Amino acid sequence: MGVRLMVVDDHRLLAEALASALKLRGHRVLAAAAPAAGAAELVITRAPEVCLLGTASPAEPGMFDPVVKIKRERPQVAVLVLGPVPSPRGIAAAFAAGASGYVRHDERIEGVERAIMKARAGEAAVAPSLLQGAFSELLNPAAQPDDEGQRLLQMLTPREVEVLVRVADGEDTRLIAAGMGIAPSTARTHVQRVLMKLGVGSRLEAAALAARTGLLDRAGPVSPTEPP
């Protein structure tokens, strides 16, 4: 039996694509919307069984205030947070706010559906890999656990860092390839690896994350590229 769902995310294309995929799998999607400011009110009004609520920065203060409001007004609604790879604090904050689970933006539709079914059944819905990573970081904290930019920088190879800087500068695949002396297909592969490692779904998200965490300041500028 299908689940009555809502998908609320700042990125409308992501919300609509996920909603369409869930509809094809037999679920009733009440809305696929993008108003971050009005997310809680929208969910409270429509009262779905499960809400997929997108977030770009799970560790930022107040990010899960909509979850708190939804659970206060509609405690029967199970809220699944949809976001990038979270820190242990991000997962803890989501559950503290009343979320039923956390699903990565790049999760396969089968994984999203499993999380939805668990949430509707009243179970915690978090991928084992996320929990394992969270526990590992909590038990073995880095020397500077609050330095998100440094943590992200350590995840990338030097070449991927250069790709990220070029992405943040607005270069497309052709310019990245020309500036680095590589084939466009290789540049495209590097970009996809950077997005995957950062846990984001688009170049814009990657650039925003890098700027917000100070990663770009540490990486330094790259040589400017002139179009051929």
Short description:
Residues 149-214 form the HTH luxR-type domain. Residues 4-120 form the Response regulatory domain. The chain is of the alpha/beta class and 228 residues long.
How would the blueprint of this fold be written?
Elements: E1 4-8, H1 12-24, E2 28-33, H2 39-46, E3 50-54, H3 65-73, E4 78-83, H4 88-97, E5 101-104, H5 109-120, E6 125-126, H6 128-139, H7 148-155, H8 158-168, H9 173-180, H10 184-198, H11 203-213, H12 215-219
Parallel strand pairs: 1-2, 1-3, 3-4, 4-5, 5-6
The secondary-structure element order is EHEHEHEHEHEHHHHHHH
Helix fraction, binned, reads 40-55%
The whole-angstrom Rg is 19 Å
Largest sheet: 6 strands, parallel
Beta-strand content: 5-15%
The pLDDT mean sits at 83
Ranges with pLDDT <50 over ≥5 residues?
none
Query: What spatial form do the alpha-carbon principal axes imply?
Result: globular
Number of H- or I-type helical stretches = 12
Query: How far is it from the N-terminal to the C-terminal residue, by CA?
Result: 56 Å
Number of strands: 6
Briefly note the structural class of the backbone: alpha/beta
Q: Numbering strands along the chain, what is their spatial order in the largest sheet?
A: 2-1-3-4-5-6
